[in-house]
């Protein structure tokens, strides 16, 4: 874009100055001449720059301004130190004038204007730093450094902060810098000499940029954003800075580092340093406590600057005052701090980009983002014109009518009253859009009347870990009335309060969670619902309160996305992490949130017990499928790629059947396809048997070992050949031989539910073909009926029902029904895995009749509903009365019964019928039809 594409021009406030400027650029005509006249007529400073750089700007006005900018910046690179001060100041004059005219003429957008000023600041800082470092090296003051090291600052880096870091510099901005050096580049003996040298460089750098000379200045430089500036040197080692932020860093410093970027010196070292600070800046959990911190910061700034009170345009601070630029920036940065730890897409250092990202991810309404963006751009453009008048570092509006006339003309407005009206409206609108977000509602509701027992219970709350800090107590004081009111509305208030007390007592800390409750009151409804209904889930939450993040993170109540989408989401997340331990932690955090989501959906009645079972299994498969290649990659780094055709992880039992409950462990088998003599080709090669055995153990550790984020799943591998005595990984040939020759009938029954859940797809297909062959071959075994009958008797003796409400163990209940379903699949030689499809295969093969199938399925559906619902609510249900009114109501609704007595009667009757039908099915009555149903539902 060239200056020939003007879209606006300022109106000259001082007509005489405008006329003189027009005359001095006689070669310009039309709008180009109007632009020069308007700029000079509104800004004495720009008029001076035009006079001083007349020939250069005249040439630049005939070219693409981006080309003029690039040429001027490039010319700085070869400037010698004695000439550098004057040359930098000349570049500042030229680029400042170029940017002003491109801005005033609408040739450049706000983004391009601030980008040009930021490019100048970057190049000036880098050239000054590398030249000064080169001088120190030449004088022998920087130990171990050579002349070539000057180009990268010899280990020193300058971080651009604030508006410079975001590439949003205003027209007369300070530049906020933090100067650091990489102490690892120097030996212990050289450290202090190097540190002294970098301190000298930093002081000279500031002088070179900010000292006023006859040529002017480049940028006023501020180093006060460094850690504890009152006591620390102007250039710190990276190690010292990192220690400070880890132990003492505050929310405002976290917000500052949203915009931080390396701009001069050793850019790679600067990037590494910022990566070490990433966990400090971007918390892994939603950080609603940052709202209060931001609110407190705003109040302190306003009090310090005297910016309180009613809005009046005269002298109003467009940056810090009501409805100003800082309000929009704080609004954006605080939301980024809340959610950016979970979503890297929200981490843009730029205000407009940040608003757009927040809207795209649903954190703010789209119309709010658009309105704040428009107001921000107009505020910044007026800010630039305020500063252009005399190159003053100011954001204050004029105090006189003449001053407002000048700024109105500067923005091309001939009617000052209209300009004032629009400006005042924008300020008020920004305040309306942002104030409610920042200022928490400090009004405290009255607490409900509580029983004496309840009062005694909550009297102990201040002693809990979550309420020991003053800040936690302050926030909890605001949310406590609503929590107690909601608890009183529960079906059994006392029981709900007791469970909430247990939840509260288990919390290790409270500030973040209480802030989350305050910002999202709907979560209080959810925790009360859980406490009143599901004690086990409440206990889980006290240990894993961070899963509440997922509830408001977007899409929590959406439909289940499916295994493939879940696998991709987790795999993509793990691929962004280059540390194995962090990958394991990330997988645990991710899986925990999805697991909680299934439980909440089930509890809220959005899905039933069978849908929940399928979703738990889908989640487990996604975790296994995504984590397996991560473990293989980590293992392969030491021992080389897997030999042979690799390995496959088979899900057995409930996982293979695709139906888990809230606390199910995973039954797994690992099978590999490689000759015993095959060796891996890594740094520490292993034979195939050792390789896959150790790889399997590594995978089990990745799933089951407790890390800082807990464990993923308990794993049971007893269904592998030879059970606990056999190797943890089995070769395909050994597996096939064992199944054909040595395996017992119960192992063939287990095979009916085997399914690939991770590892080689090709090997999985080969094993599935083998599974189908084996089922067909073993379907006519002469002892199947007797073996299964014996197994059933042993199960009844070893695992009797633990009371009336045990839906899993005992005759006619889940284990019994699953056993007969597997028998049906095996006897029919059918590959079906789920109970319903296996029973259907038995009917088609003549193993049982349709009436028996229907009656057994009735018992199965009731038992599964009881088991899945019960394991969501409590660890064990020996008596349904122990669940309390909320839990009872939920389990009765799930089972479709009106009373506990009616449910007990139905459970006993259906299980008794199922028991009898199972027993009759296992009485051998003749040959099975020669037919299989390979189209049965898998």
TrEMBL record:
One of its GO terms (molecular function) is [glutamate-ammonia-ligase] adenylyltransferase activity. Pfam families: GlnD_UR_UTase, GlnE. Keywords: ATP-binding, Ligase, Magnesium, Multifunctional enzyme, Nucleotide-binding, Nucleotidyltransferase, Transferase. InterPro entries: GlnE, GlnE_rpt_dom, NT_sf, PII_UdlTrfase/GS_AdlTrfase. One of its GO terms (cellular component) is cytosol. One of its GO terms (biological process) is regulation of glutamine family amino acid metabolic process. Residues 42-275, 527-768 form the Glutamate-ammonia ligase adenylyltransferase repeated domain. Residues 300-438 form the PII-uridylyltransferase/Glutamine-synthetase adenylyltransferase domain. This is Glutamate-ammonia-ligase adenylyltransferase. It comes from Roseinatronobacter monicus.
